[in-house]
Amino acid sequence: MASSLKDSWKETGKGLGHAFKDLGKTVVKTVEKGVNEAVDWADREDAKICQNCNTANPPESKFCSSCGKEL
Ligand SMILES: [Zn+2]
Q1: What is the DSSP string of 6-47?
Q2: Beta partners for 57?
Q3: What is the dihedral of CA 52, 54, 59, 63, to 10 degrees?
Q4: End-to-end alpha-carbon separation of the chain, Å?
Q5: Where do the domains of the chain lie?
């Protein structure tokens, strides 16, 4: 009885571990995507450069995507 409870906790732990692993991958992918997009924008002449932190933002953006300052 006790061992089966332990086993079920082990399975739960494994499941959680996989969930967090996937979550971590998603976060990394999102960050990578954001960085790539920022690099793309930096190449554009109409990009809005934040005067506060020098981040290139899309021309239609009103606030800096990095520091949140009004552009
Ligand atoms: Zn900024």
Answers
A1: HHHHHHHHHHHHHHHHHHHHHHHHHHHHHHHHHHHHHH-TTP
A2: 48
A3: -30
A4: 63
A5: 2-57
Query: Tokens representing 37?
Result: 């997009």
CA count, 13 A, side-chain hemisphere, 30: 6
CA of 63 to the centre of ligand 1 (A): 8
pLDDT tens digits, 13-52? 888 888 888 888 888 888 777 777 766 666 667 889 999 9
CA of 41 to the centre of ligand 1 (A): 14
Q: How many whole angstroms from 52 Cα to the centroid of ligand 1?
A: 5
Q: How far is the CA of 26 from the centre of ligand 1 (A)?
A: 24
